[in-house]
Amino acid sequence: MLKGKSTIELFDSVTGKKKEEYKDENIVTNAINNLLDWNGEMLASGVAVNDMLARLTPLYPNYLRGVLLWDDIIQENQNNILPPPGINCLGHAGGHYGAENPLRGTWNQNETVVKENSVKMVWDFATDKANGVIKSISLTSSAGGDRGWMTPGEAGTFFRQRINNGSSSQSLVHFAPSVVNSVTNTSTTYVGELRKGIHTHILDRNDNSLTIVEQSYANPEALSIFDSAGLLTSSQPHCKEELFTVASDERFSNLATNFIIDKDYNLVHVSLSGTGNRNVRIRTVNLITKQVIDDRRVTLDRNVQASPAAYFKNRIYATVASAGIHAFNEGGVSSGLVAGNNVTSSTMRYWCFAGDYLASPTVSATNNLFIIDGINAVFTQAGNDVVNQMNLCNSSSMKLPLITLLHESSANSYPKSIFYVTPYMATINNLQMPVTKTELNSMKITYELIQE
Which of 336, 358, 362 lies closest to 347 in space, CA to CA? Predict the structure, then answer.
């Protein structure tokens, strides 16, 4: 069992004398458990589990030597792995740092002490760093401490990190999700493992319906003497494949680029048509029950591109030519520019991240754009694996901070890879008293973590 406590010290910028000291204790979230404890279906999906464990351990220093500073308290719930929208990161620190980012502190290697069952980690923040009112702090990965949460990105800091930190050809997941045997078409889109061991695809067969294909591995105990039980690849037969059709009166146009999967596993699809693509139809289909749960139409107040587009938290996102991403309200009225014209790519799609954020498609694979509250957005350095056309895949076999990303490239023989979100919250430490850090003070944060 992990236990932790923090000490925040403020020092006078002129005399160097300690002015204030704050000591608090934390709760440990399920972030570390989720990194190490996966469901058995990962074995069936071809994950090299021993290899993955070797890359994730030891936990210190890579996965427990960063700190995040928050401007508000965070609900002390072990399942809160990522902060909710509305919580801002006032400061962060991971490894050594000496540049100008006003939020980023530096690791104090000399005062950090590692013992057999405990570690005391120390970070320093100069007078120009992390100024504001701090109400909570969290331990995170070293990479997450370098990166910060939804803060402006720096070169060499990554919001996501590949577990194996290697090239795109070294995937840990050997399931090839582009294979569908029961139907023939050119518009198959893999959306993830929505239920344990069941991999889901959506298809546009050029008719007025949505086709859903579910693939799953056979239970070895249930195999008969005539059952095939090969790998889910193009050279092996599928163990099981079921096809479902959701009828409609109109085609699901641009299916590959104009949808998101929300936290309830609803496919939310946006069709754009008419002059200037102003006519919008939003259809929501639950991919588990195969039922249409919403169908609405909206007329936009200006011309947009046909793709990509998304509907998320009561707003429609579409690209206005030469003007970038706009957010439209329920009445179709643009509420303003979200991001500039160099952001969007017609071959990629938006994706729902952690149920609370919308990530936009980008021209450059080096960046993600996270839309936080419908209008405000922030660019992040995407990840150490810079590959074009990467989309998030749902996975019931993994929990945050683990995520899977799909390389939408037929040239990649292992297209599905495991990443982790670097600035996760391994602990939540709400301070008994807020700490006000100003340019008149330097600050030292000491975090002691004990394995009992």
Answer: 362
CA distances from 239 to 52, 180, 227, 314 (A): 25, 12, 8, 40
* Cα–Cα distance for residue pair 398/414, rounded to 1 Å: 18
30-72: pLDDT as tens digits: 999 999 877 655 554 556 677 778 888 899 999 999 999 999 9
DSSP bridge partners of 283: 269, 295
Going from the C-alpha of 330 to that of each of 107, 187, 293, 432, the distances in angstroms are 47, 29, 17, 42
Q: Order the strands of the 324-328 sheet from edge to edge.
A: 310-312, 315-320, 324-328, 334-339
Which string of DSSP letters, residue by residue, matches 312-356? ETTEEEEEETTTEEEEE-TTS-EEEEEE-TTS--TTS--EEETTT
DSSP 156-167: T--SEEETT-S-
Strand ranges, E, within 240-290:
240-247, 259-261, 266-273, 279-286
Partners of 242 in the beta sheet?
Answer: 214
**Global pTM value:** 0.89
Q: Do the Cβ atoms of 232 and 214 come closer than 8 Å?
A: no
Tell me the C-alpha to C-alpha distance, in Å, between residue 361 and each of 87, 245, 366: 24, 28, 11
